[in-house]
Amino acid sequence: MRVTVVVPTYNERENLPVAVERLTALPVPDLHVLVVDDNSPDGTGEVADKLAAELPNVVSVLHRTEKDGLGRAYIAGITKALDDGADVVIQMDADLSHPAEVIPAMLEQLSSADVGVVLGSRYVPGGSTAEEWKWYRKALSAWANFYVNLILRLGVKDATAGFKAWQADTLRAIDVASIRSNGYSFQVEMNYRAIKKGYTIAEVPIRFEERTVGASKMSLKVQLESALMPWKLLFGRSV
C-alpha cells in the first residue's frame, strides 16, 4: 500500500526538515512525502529540493508559482499523489501542529470496510489543543465546529480538522479536483462531499500543537469564506 503524505508549505524552511524527519521515522512501509511549495520567499522550496535529493525514493517536491491558498495547494498535491499511484493520501500541515506519530493509528482505522477518511481530531475523547492557545482561540475553534455541524449535520466532532487520511477511491469519488473552496472551508467541503457519497468519517484523537516557528496563514478572507461555505453547500453547491 503506497501512502503519500501531502505537505503544503509557504515559508516553512525551519519546520519542514523536522516534519520530514518525523514522517520518515514512522513504521509505515512505502510511505512517501510530497512537499507542495508555493514559491516561498524564505527558500523553503530549496530546502525541500535538498531533502528530495537526500531521500530520492521518499521525498518529492511540487513547485507552484503562486500562493493562492491552502485548498489549492492541497488539491494540486492530492491530484499528483493520485496520479502517481497513491492508495492512501494524508493531509498534513508543515508547521508541526499535527502529530506524525498518530498516522499508524489513522491508517489502522482507515482499513475498516466503510471508512473513507480518518480525521485527526481535537474534540474526541483523548484529543486536545495546545495549552498555549488563548481562551478566545479555543472558543472560536469550538464555535466553528458547532456552527458547521449545526448547518450541515456532518456528525463529526472536528469538522474543520486539517489532519486527514483518505482512501484514494474516496478522493476520486468526491472529485477532489473540482473543489473550488479554499482555506479551512476546503476541509469542510471535502467532508461534506464524502458524507454525501455515503462514506463514513472516523476520528482518532490528537493533541494539536501550537507552531513554534513562523507565522499563521489565517486571514480575514479565509475566515469569511469559511463562514459562508456551509450555507453554499446546504443550498445547492454541487457535490
From TrEMBL:
Keywords: Glycosyltransferase, Transferase. It comes from Nocardia rhizosphaerae. This is Polyprenol monophosphomannose synthase. Belongs to the glycosyltransferase 2 family. InterPro entries: DPM1-like (IPR039528), Glyco_trans_2-like (IPR001173), Nucleotide-diphossugar_trans (IPR029044). Pfam families: Glycos_transf_2. Residues 4-164 form the Glycosyltransferase 2-like domain.
